[in-house]
């Protein structure tokens, strides 16, 4: 027999899927480097009631994973961590995100 689920009970069935252990250990910048597409948007306060909203259009930038892997140092044993600056465009002087990246975790998440 079929059971009719109450709206509150549907949450247990529709829970979030399990995430791979190598992906759960990544920091914010490493997650963006592994992603196939990187979204950029400006979230700001709107009006007097101070609700947050997207101010301009959302830019969806495709990420070529092979190029990002090739930019990392060849010998991973030389450095345990690398500082990476993520820019929206190469022509911009300022960076969007600047953090320390562990190449071992990055490669484990890719493969």
UniProtKB/TrEMBL annotation:
It comes from the Eukaryota. It comes from Caerostris darwini. Pfam families: DUF6570. Residues 22-90 form the DUF6570 domain. This is ATP-dependent DNA helicase. The gene is AVEN_267640_1. One of its GO terms (molecular function) is helicase activity. Keywords: ATP-binding, Helicase, Hydrolase, Nucleotide-binding. InterPro entries: DUF6570.
């Amino acid at each position: 027999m079929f059971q009719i689920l109450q709206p509150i009970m549907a949450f247990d069935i529709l829970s979030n899927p399990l995430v791979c252990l190598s992906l759960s250990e990544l920091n914010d910048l490493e997650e963006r480097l592994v992603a196939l597409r990187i979204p950029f948007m400006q979230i700001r306060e709107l009006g007097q009631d101070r609700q947050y909203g997207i101010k301009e259009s959302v830019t969806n930038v495709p990420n070529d994973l092979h190029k990002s892997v090739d930019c990392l140092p060849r010998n991973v044993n030389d450095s345990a961590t690398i500082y990476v600056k993520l820019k929206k465009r190469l022509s911009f002087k300022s960076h969007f995100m600047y953090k320390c990246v562990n190449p071992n975790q990055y490669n484990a998440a890719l493969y």
